[in-house]
């Protein structure tokens, strides 16, 4: 799950990026409002963590511009401002949730998962596909009740494909969501992950759509 972190405090940003990466998120980090809008115009993110006290353009201005442009990406505001009026203004401008600094990283990760789940119209925290169950919070997968051991990238790739069941995801989309800026990517890395998932979960689960990408068929009824 690819997240955009918008935070100008280097110490806090380092901690949030490391903590969320450890929880299975792919985190790209920018440090001012203009850079945030440029990143959001150019690429897709599952959610945004947005500080309010930013240089160049403050967080509320970023939020207002984002919503005026019709971008529905879930936004969780990180702020030291605990005035009710600030919260009301942010929510009215289109924020989906608020977290007051200092905050617990585990709670932050849980709030992000909940935001993304709601944006996808899902009530169940787990993804279920036939006899396959994926738990995003615990980062576990079970097939027919038995645990399946996946690497971090295999888990994230499977979650993306299950989230998009019935739709083809292109190689570009998958790689953009799996890897953060500056992260080295081998030319055949995606194919290797797909191969390993098929070996562990069955060759029929993930279909190759030649010249386009990969697909998990709509979930069985």
Automatic annotation (TrEMBL):
Q: Mind telling me what this protein is named?
A: Response regulator
Instruction: List the SUPFAM superfamilies.
Output: CheY-like
Subcellular location, record wording: Cytoplasm
Q: Which UniProt keywords apply?
A: Cytoplasm, DNA-binding, Phosphoprotein, Transcription, Transcription regulation, Two-component regulatory system
An annotated GO BP: regulation of DNA-templated transcription
Q: Which organism is it from?
A: Zoogloea oleivorans
Provide the OmpR/PhoB-type domain boundaries: 124-218
Q: Give the annotated DNA-binding region, as residue ranges.
A: 124-218
Q: Which GO terms describe its molecular function?
A: phosphorelay response regulator activity; transcription cis-regulatory region binding
Please report the stretch or stretches of sequence annotated as the Response regulatory domain: 2-116
Q: Which Pfam families match?
A: Response_reg, Trans_reg_C
Q: Tell me the organism's taxonomic lineage.
A: Bacteria, Pseudomonadati, Pseudomonadota, Betaproteobacteria, Rhodocyclales
Chain positions found as 4-aspartylphosphate: 51
Cellular component (GO) terms are: cytosol; protein-DNA complex
Q: Does the keyword Phosphoprotein apply?
A: yes
């Amino acid at each position: 799950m690819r997240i955009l972190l918008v935070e100008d405090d280097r110490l806090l940003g380092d901690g949030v990026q490391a903590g969320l990466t450890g929880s299975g998120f792919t985190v790209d980090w920018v440090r001012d409002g203009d850079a945030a809008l440029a990143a959001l115009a150019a690429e897709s993110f599952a959610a945004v963590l947005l500080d309010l006290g930013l240089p160049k353009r403050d967080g509320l201005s970023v939020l207002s511009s984002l919503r005026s442009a019709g971008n529905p990406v879930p936004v969780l505001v990180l702020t030291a401002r605990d005035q009710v009026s600030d919260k009301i203004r942010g929510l009215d401008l289109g924020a989906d949730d608020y977290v007051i600094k200092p905050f617990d990283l585990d709670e932050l990760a849980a709030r992000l998962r909940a935001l993304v789940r709601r944006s996808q119209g899902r009530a169940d925290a787990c993804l279920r596909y036939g006899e396959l169950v994926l738990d995003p919070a615990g980062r576990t997968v079970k097939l027919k009740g038995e645990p399946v051991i996946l690497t971090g990238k295999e888990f994230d790739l499977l979650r993306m494909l299950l989230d998009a069941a019935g739709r083809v995801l292109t190689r570009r989309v998958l790689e953009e969501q799996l890897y953060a800026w500056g992260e080295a990517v081998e030319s055949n890395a995606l194919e290797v992950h797909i191969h390993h998932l098929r070996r562990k979960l069955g060759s029929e689960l993930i279909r190759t759509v030649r010249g386009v990408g990969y697909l998990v068929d709509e979930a069985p009824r």
